[in-house]
Amino acid sequence: MTTTTHKRVPIPKNGVDYRGKIVLAPMVRSGECPSRLLALHYGADLVWGPETIDKSLIGTTRRVNSVTNTIDFTRFSSNGSKNAAIAANQRESLIYRLHPAREGKQLIYQIGTANPTTAVEAAKLIAGDVAGIDVNAGCPKPFSTSGGMGAALLKTPELLCSILRALVAEVGTPFEIGISVKIRLLNDPADTEKLVRSLCETGITGLTIHCRTTPMRPREPAIRAQLRMIANICREAGVACLMNGDVASRADAEALMAEYGVDGAMIATAAETNPSVFRALADGGMAPWEEAVHRYIRTALDVHNRWGNTKYLLGQMIPGKQPAYKTMSRSKSYSELIQSLKNEPAFQRAANCDFSDEMVELARDLDRELEIGAFEVPKMSKAEKKRAAKESAQTESKTLPPAGTKRTADQASLDDHHNATEKRKSDVSVDVASGTVAEQASTITV
Ligand SMILES: Cc1cc2nc3c(=O)[nH]c(=O)nc-3n(C[C@H](O)[C@H](O)[C@H](O)COP(=O)(O)O)c2cc1C
């Protein structure tokens, strides 16, 4: 009897093998931290974060958030942030939040990029915190394609390959994690074949095929015709192949993987509606929507999720015809949401859906932190911002020496100290990004 052994691209020490995995797809808005943690709770083997564009990550500060136990990549918006009067009123934007203990070893960061240099620069900032970097070469939305990113890269395969090669050499190798790519089908199977062959030669460890072409709408059924061919090319090259498109549950994924000979499967919209699609039938299969919603709210409270994002997700998870949907839509804060869902018969009937006093308290604290509901503070109008900026500029000009005045020794020393601090700050964000999660207790905490 002969046994066939297939070639396998080695999986780096800090990376993960996509083989045999059923995973959460990258989803802008729907793939934020609490959604990923919930998918993992229900048995997802790996989770992809939402596509984050290289230029958004470049320039962020990496902070260890000791309240939520997350790692936050944040930045001030460029608009007016240097002005102290405005900055005091301006929130730092959260670009990316991840939970190292609960997802770090199973999290793949998906990058939006059209340039090898900026891709490498951004990926280096987060590579120490994740199990892999995936390049989005499938998003058909104009915000992505207009910059040459996403599905536009399918039309520039040399550029796509050069991005992957740069990431493999300059990020995958030093950080010992895998680099992968997510693509769509091309119309002509011969073109898809050629593309997949060249992608497999770049040193990637995994490839996801979304079984739709770029112009296809999400509601159009996925096409399976090219799947076996793609899986075979990946297998020959030793690259793990994930299938994506209309995969409904773990059981469905397992059946499709067996039928088409692919290594794993990725689920998006079904998991957005109910993340318990990842749970094996033997462990209870899909949970009722009430249970998934209750658990989602709890997780959102744990990681201090943005209220707008939580509400958006609940809009996907609560069936539109349920009275709870209206209740949720009307809520203006976590406290209001919990108080009103508590009284909904659907939640009173459901098992394990008690909104405990602890949750009520957490909700109040989070409302206070986010300044929503009872804690909402009036926002500064444009005119007020302008006035504050003017006043600050006037104060500054009074304290500065007239132009041409020599700096005193004290002033010079203060300035030098300020410059050194600024430099140290920028060194911190570079240094810590190259460390491992365990090493980073000494980084900035908030
Ligand atoms: C809300 C939403 C956001 C998405 N964002 C991304 C993204 O950031 N990156 C990406 O590669 N695909 C993105 N997609 C596409 C999905 O990852 C997936 O390829 C597609 O939905 C097909 O899978 P499905 O049939 O299981 O929904 C998104 C899809 C949805 C529904």
UniProtKB/TrEMBL annotation:
Coiled coil: none annotated. It catalyses: a 5,6-dihydrouridine in mRNA + NADP(+) = a uridine in mRNA + NADPH + H(+); a 5,6-dihydrouridine in mRNA + NAD(+) = a uridine in mRNA + NADH + H(+). One of its GO terms (molecular function) is flavin adenine dinucleotide binding. Residues 414-428 have a biased composition (Basic and acidic residues). One of its GO terms (biological process) is mRNA processing. Residues 437-446 have a biased composition (Polar residues). Residues 95-296 form the DUS-like FMN-binding domain. Residues 381-446 are annotated as: Disordered. PROSITE patterns: UPF0034. This is DUS-like FMN-binding domain-containing protein. The lineage of its organism: Eukaryota, Fungi, Dikarya, Ascomycota, Pezizomycotina.
